[in-house]
Amino acid sequence: MGNIIRMRFLKSQFRNKFIFWLLGWKHEQDKALTSLHSFTRSVIREKKMLLKKGKSSMFSETPSKKRLAFLDLLLSSAKDGTVLTDEEIREEVDTFMFAGHDTTSSGITWALFNIGRMPEVQRKIHDELDEVMAGRDTPPTRDDLAQMKYLEWTIKESMRVCPPVASYSRTLSEAAQILGYEVPAGTNVLFFPHMIHRDPRHWPDPDRFEPDRFQPERSAGRHPYSYLPFSAGPRNCIGQRFALMEEKAVISAVLREFRIESRRQYDESMMNVCLTLQSNGPVEIRFVPRDRE
Ligand code: HEM
């Protein structure tokens, strides 16, 4: 589905419905959509069954504050279709499936790739993990994850160099002057965080991979729109804190066990802007068990 959207975005001839159908892409799209929607519907069906049995995913943020998990909340607000229909719920769940999955997997892949090509950065992450986890072999707690500061800066630096969402857009509600151009109201303006993140006015030596840029002292005073992996403003990413925590949990689990080596050198041409940032060709990484070293 991502490839189809990308192709229609880049090549205007495929936006013509007849050509799209004639070349068989419509058929491909229908197949992809059936597969995506049936996955989401099955998740909703299972959740409804659990709710019927009285099992909701209630979780506590603090002992006094209980919250419903996202899908439970949607289902309980639906009031048997009078407030939200099944299809409307499915659309919301689709958004979360895509926005929450492909983005984080792209972020994790690029972070592992960048860590694997920077032995000094990796050594510091290993030192930090050894210190925070202090020989325990249990999964990290929320507090442990919060202490993994250098890992967090590395993930942020990786999203600066390789932003998982490579582009997004806004429609101008009023005319604007952009770099000397008069841009009329109603224009759709695309943002490319990849380029914003390489602006030397905000990021000296922008091609250097340097997690320490995100130390609080060095981040203070930086322009608020110079770093936009999660967009900005009222429609920015609703899952950004969760995404960071998820990336930390996955990457720390890998690096507690392994030292990794990227088999490819970084170069711009390996980036493939699909809906999320993908790589041209595989991101090859060698995993060396740490206990054998
Ligand atoms: C590294 C991971 C992620 C990145 C880079 C990312 C990036 C983004 C960006 C750039 C947008 C804004 C798009 C725009 O302005 O038009 C966005 C929106 C959104 N994201 Fe994320 N995201 C990530 C993870 C997640 C996760 C884990 C969830 C959910 C669990 C999530 C849910 C959403 C939703 C629902 C929106 C739409 C918000 C709205 O329109 O009000 N994202 N994300």
Description:
The chain is of the alpha+beta class and 293 residues long. The protein has 2 domains: 1-84, no CATH class; 99-292, Orthogonal Bundle (Cytochrome p450). The protein contains 11 helices and 10 strands. The site of protoporphyrin IX containing FE (HEM) has 20 residues, from α5 and α11.
Strand-helix topology:
Blueprint (H helix, E strand, L loop, with lengths): L1 H9 L6 H6 L2 H28 L5 E5 L2 E4 L1 H8 L8 H31 L2 H15 L8 H6 L1 H13 L6 E4 L4 E3 L2 E3 L4 E4 L1 H4 L19 H4 L20 H18 E5 L8 E3 L3 E3 L5 E5 L4
Helix pairs in contact: 3-5, 5-8, 5-11, 6-8
The structure holds protoporphyrin IX containing FE.
User: What's the CATH architecture name of the largest domain?
Assistant: Orthogonal Bundle
Which bin fits the share of residues in helices? 40-55%
**What's the CATH class label of the largest domain?**
Mainly Alpha
Spatial shape: globular
Give me the secondary-structure category. Answer: alpha+beta
Query: How would you name the CATH homologous superfamily of the largest domain?
Result: Cytochrome P450
**Strand count:** 10
Strand order of the largest sheet: 1-2
What average pLDDT do the residues reach?
92
Bound molecules: protoporphyrin IX containing FE
Terminal CA distance: 43 Å
- Cα gyration radius (Å): 22 Å
